[in-house]
Specification:
The chain has 230 residues and is α/β, with parallel strands linked by helices. It has ten helices and five strands; from the N terminus they run βαβαβαβααααβααα.
Length: 230
């Protein structure tokens, strides 16, 4: 009633709460995104959510003992062992596609927790407050020294799942998430997102389209925004 137009469900929401909120939001002709955990991607799609954030990193669909409306521990690690070409993953992709659910890739925020990844570019470092930059540099150095094979495998698996979802016909869009321990700076990280999509197997043109026109398509504004035309 006060004019809010942007809504996001967070990790501990229940299916009942999510469904009730979606009914109100859709009644206003608006959309809702989510960073989920207690509710699976498939459940959220069935309820009518419009977008899911963080690629498939927040998906709890593959947790064997997942309890309804509960956020399980260690859910992210279950992605490593799933078969992208298997019926579980393909079924999830199709559910999302059938319900018109977009998925937002936020690769830069996961890169900072993965050993062997590059430091933020100098421009991003220069844009940070000195104390924030110092904390970021110290934590980046700690991560770089870790022997964390699971983190490396998980980062790669999420890239593969995003690529497969798009190849299956899903609407993949892109954003950044300036959380974690820092280094994900608006503008610089958007450019890095495009580079990481290319690393994931997209062509440069596809990566640019995901990061621009696909976002406009999700918003229903593709006739106004998202592309350059003669």
């Amino acid at each position: 009633d006060e004019g809010a137009t942007s809504f996001k469900a967070y990790m501990q929401i229940s299916r009942t709460e999510l469904g009730a909120v979606l009914e109100v939001i859709h009644g206003r002709g608006l959309k809702m995104t989510g960073h989920l955990c207690s509710v699976t991607y498939a459940e959220a799609a069935e309820l009518g959510i419009d977008n899911l954030e963080h690629g498939f990193m927040a998906a709890t669909d593959f947790v064997a003992d997942k309890q309804p409306d509960r956020c399980p521990r260690g859910a992210r690690g279950t992605l490593i062992g799933v078969d992208i070409d298997g019926p579980e993953v393909r079924g999830l992709f199709q559910t999302l596609i059938d319900h018109g659910v977009a998925v937002t890739s936020t690769l830069p925020v996961f890169e900072i927790s993965t050993p062997g990844r590059p430091l933020a570019p100098q421009g991003a470092l220069d844009a940070m407050a000195p104390d924030a930059r110092d904390r970021y540099m110290r934590q980046w150095a700690r991560v770089a020294q870790q022997d964390n094979a699971q983190s490396v495998a998980l980062f790669k698996k999420n890239m593969q799942m995003e690529k497969a979802f798009a190849a299956a016909g899903g609407l993949l869009i892109a954003g950044i998430d300036p959380t974690g321990y820092g280094g994900v700076v608006a503008g610089y990280a958007n450019h890095r997102q495009i580079e990481l999509l290319v690393e994931a197997g997209f062509t440069p043109e596809e990566a640019i389209e995901i990061s621009t026109l696909n976002g406009a398509r999700y918003l229903g504004m593709q006739d106004e925004l998202g592309s350059i035309e003669v």
